[in-house]
Amino acid sequence: xxxxxxxxxxxxxxxxxxxxxxxxxxxxxxxxxxxxxxxxxxxxxxxxxxxxxxxxxxxxxxxxxxxxxxxxxxxxxxxxxxxxxxxxxxxxxxxxxxxxxxxxxxxxxxxxxxxxxxxxxxxxxxxxxxxxxxxxxxxxxxxxxxxxxxxxxxxxxxxxxxxxxxxxxxxxxxxxxxxxxxxxxxxxxxxxxxxxxxxxxxxxxxxxxxxxxxxxxxxxxxxxxxxxxxxxxxxxxxxxxxxxxxxxxxxxxxxxxxxxxxxxxxxxxxxxxxxxxxxxxxxxxxxxxxxxxxxxxxxxxxxxxxxxxxxxxxxxxxxxxxxxxxxxxxxxxxxxxxxxxxxxxxxxxxxxxxxxxxxxxxxxxxxxxxxxxxxxxxxxxxxxxxxxxxxxxxxxxxxxxxxxxxxxxxxxxxxxxxxxxxxxxxxxxxxxxxxxxxxxxxxxxxxxxxxxxxxxxxxxxxxxxxxxxxxxxxxxxxxxxxxxxxxxxxxxxxxxxxxxxxxxxxxxxxxxxxxxxxxxxxxxxxxxxxxxxxxxxxxxxxxxxxxxxxxxxxxxxxxxxxxxxxxxxxxxxxxxxxxxxxxx
Length: 584
What we know:
Layout: H1 2-47, H2 55-74, E1 88-89, H3 96-109, E2 116-120, E3 125-129, E4 141-146, H4 147-152, H5 155-170, H6 173-195, H7 200-239, H8 241-271, E5 274-276, H9 279-288, H10 293-305, H11 317-326, H12 343-346, H13 416-432, E6 438-440, H14 442-457, H15 459-468, H16 476-485, H17 489-496, H18 503-522, E7 526-529, E8 535-538, H19 544-553, H20 556-563, H21 578-582
Parallel strand pairs: 2-4, 5-6
Antiparallel strand pairs: 1-2, 3-4, 7-8
Helix pairs in contact: 1-2, 1-6, 1-7, 2-6, 2-7, 3-5, 5-7, 5-8, 6-7, 7-8, 8-9, 8-10, 8-11, 14-18, 15-16, 15-17, 17-18, 18-19
Subcellular location: Cell membrane
Cofactor: Zn(2+)
Region (Disordered): 328-408
């Protein structure tokens, strides 16, 4: 306890010293500027002659810099001006199970229970505590839990995440964090004010603050990383090491997947004045799509391979996984008895009884078998969490058999279907600034927006085929097929995605898109929702994925026959010059 108090005092002293250092630097520079102006005036008066040309300009510039510096130092964000987080504020009456779980975890760690709990949009969780008098007076505790996070974790993993957040409270991080954050924003505000009009004198005055900001960031980020490691240890004490590791991995994978999902599936709908009613069901379906599993495994490998940078506020996920694994086989603390779940939180809206709880993944498996979701129907809230790859062998994680099977974390939310729909609308309105958005389902979105958008993207394949060398008075798809037929698929892949880590995968996706557009345009196909791509073409013939596989295997003739693409004769023009390509 004494060590904890000593560490908390050290952090408080550091935060206070950095904040006072900013004010000391600002006051010192203002004093130097006024001293320089006074010295110039005295020098001119002592010479008893007309001031030299430019004297007034220098004095005005220096005084303007001092005024801007004082304005930046005294202005900026004040405590509490950011307002509540974007999302849904809950209460024990509206979300009884979630509140009970949060209070139980806070009690297990000796932390104050949250005063407010917000459901927020993304794959995230956070805790904040507004404090006064440099953190000496505790304030309101606010917990935020992302619906994206609830979509991918089970209850044991969510306990690890929330225990980590409450560990920040017991460590005093939330009391000192606002102080450090305000100091950082104060420095940034000062630099912005000094540089906003581009004047040289003000830019020179801003330079010391830029250097001080680098020192400030490097020092506070090192402290922040130490706080994250301490909070991870709190998570292990409550939820156990295997659950904490799985939560880290799944969160890292899902965070990347959610960004991709919003960019490729949701943003195009927003641009057209629509919002997806089943946004989170779609996200779960994407994460469990069998065709996405290899991609998700690659994302996991990339996440675990990332190194911690000196400017990072958190250690890398790979480092945190290794540190947790080094703690050994830590069993979770026995949970307190939660409040009885409400019926709407115990089962998905379309089910009369809760599904059997999925078993946690084994550390020896690279990924459990994926659970497919129907490609044309958004997955309901009962879709299992996406698979998580195991800890790398070097981590030596104890077996996860000690962690009991746990239900999906979304079951902690009362009436999840209504809650997710409400959140999807909140996010859409915040992203677009429009209050007149209209709802849309995934199949309708594929037919009206996502599919036609993919068809337009097929132009890239045509233009790259022309650049590699083909006859440009033919259709773009026919040109690309001819290049593959003549053994130039690799050239086309490199031209299509020169900077891609896997150009062949980019070429496969491009052919898939172009073939789907061909089927819809010329063969009475229709666009439907797909979780391996934003949309898929459905028709009476061979599935698009199989056609694309035939193309890349060199079976061009059968694809041309089925799609009635004439082909040849072609005259190989070789690589085109820029002026020739302009006429293509």
